[in-house]
Amino acid sequence: MTQTEQMKNQMAAKKNNGGAPAKDKPKTIEDYLKQMAPAMQEALPKHMDKDRLLRLAMTTIRTTPGLREANPASLLGAVMEAAQLGLEPGPMGHCYMLPFKNNKAQTTDVQFIIGYKGMIDLARRSGHIQSIYAHAVYENDEFEYELGLDPKLKHVPTMDTNKGEFIGSYAVAKFKDGGYQMEFMPKAEIEKRRTSSPSGRSKYSPWNNHYEEMANKTVIRHMWKYLPISVEIQQHVAHDEGVAREIKDITPNDDIFLDAPEPDFINMENPEEDGQNDFPVEDNA
């Protein structure tokens, strides 16, 4: 009997016993993450360790109480997205997992967000990009941007402590074959994209504490389709800032973990000793 079949039998036993979970049923999100570990190991690139990713994922869940209330399939899907992309969730800025209220489905889902550093890392892995970077432009900078037959980009940041208002961000990618791609996005366009995303409207969004980096990431995300990136990475990045795919959609043929637990199967230990307050989940109308 496969592990998936055992899990299904345990779910059936729970229902037949009037809602009491089976004794050998994993009871915490940590148990389910450990159950996913073999699949995560297969998905991870060589430079990453599954144990480190599990620790980072658990730290993120513990320090973001709203994630404990999220749809388990969506939460586990976000962790697997991070594994498949080889990005570390947390304060380093590679990727984020943000809970939000899905009013249509009446659930709390998890939004998987790639950070600025994550986008840079993914682009560099292609092997075709010599360098890639993005910078914010402020009102008191010397900045010239011109398209046409002879494109031009010149940026001399001001040395004054008063940089003036943020006016936009630009990104440049230089290819190993000598070509390049550059994009500039004014603040109005960046704001349009930020406010159209549930993550951008959340009080707990990385936009609040890392606006410049997220603005730079937005420009890189815009020019992503012009970069020599593998189709596999392109497909994963297409889910950036969207509702994380459920775990069954990411590993549909994997006997290690096929059916995600129902919400009431998760009994995440409440870290009262950590002094964490309830997480006010943002509504997504």
Descriptive overview:
This protein has two domains: 3-115 and 240-276, no CATH class; 127-228, no CATH class. The chain is built from eleven helices and nine strands. It has a four-stranded mixed beta sheet with strand order 8-2-1-9. The radius of gyration is 21 Å and the shape is globular. Mean pLDDT is 77; it is low at 248-285. It has 285 residues and is of the alpha+beta class. Helix 2 (29-43) runs antiparallel to helix 3 (50-63), helix 2 packs parallel to helix 4 and helix 5 runs parallel beside helix 9. 36% of the residues are buried.
**What string gives the helices and strands in order?**
HHHHEEHEEEEEHHHHHEHE
The stretches of 5 or more residues where confidence is low (pLDDT under 50) are 248-285
- Quaternary assembly: single chain
Number of strands: 9
Secondary structure tally, helices: 11
Query: What portion of the residues fall into strands of 2 or more residues?
Result: 15-25%
Largest sheet: 4 strands, mixed
How does the helix and strand content classify structurally? alpha+beta
State the end-to-end distance: 43 Å
- What is the topology, as strand order, of the major beta sheet? 8-2-1-9
* Estimated radius of gyration: 21 Å
Q: Note the overall shape.
A: globular
Number of domains: 2
Please state the average pLDDT score. Answer: 77
**What's the helical proportion of residues?**
25-40%
